[in-house]
Amino acid sequence: MTTGIVLSGGGALGDFEIGALRAMYNRGIRPDVLTGTSVGSINAVKLAEDPKSDGPLTELEGIWFGLNNNADMFVEDPNFALIDQSLKDFLHYTWFTIGWDLFTIATSGLVGILADLGDALGVGLIKTGVDITNLLEGVNAYLSSGSKSLYLLDPIRQKLTVKLLPDKVAKSGAILRMATVSLESGLVRYIDQNGRFIDDGTQVDLIQGVMASASIPAIFPPQRIGNENFVDGGIRDVLPIQAALDAGADQVFAVAASRSGVDPKPQGFFNDKTILDIAQRGAGDIMSSQVMSLETNPLVQPWPDSVLIIQPDFSVHDAFTIDPGLIRINSGYGYMRAAELVDFSAAAQAGNLGAELTLIFLAILSTAIARLRHEIWLAEFGAAGQRTPQQQVSDPQLILVPSPELFLFVRESKAQLKILLEDRLSLYGTSPRIGVSQTALNFGSTPVCAQATLFIEVRNLADAGMPPDISALWLQFEAHPFVNPAAASPWSLFVSAAGTVPAATPPPPTITLDDLQFAVSVSPGLFSVTTTATDVPAGQSATIAVTMGPPPGSPLPPLGPAEATLTITSNDPNTPTITVSLIGEFVASPPRLVAPPSVNFGVVLVDQTRRGGILIRNTGCGDLTVTALNLTDPFGVFDVSGPPMPFSLPNGGATHILLAFSPLGDRAYTGSLSIVTNAQTATVALKGVGRGRLNLPTPGVGTPSSLARVLAASRNAARRAPAAPKVTPDSRPE
Question: Is the overall model pTM greater than 0.90, yes or no?
Answer without folding.
Answer: no
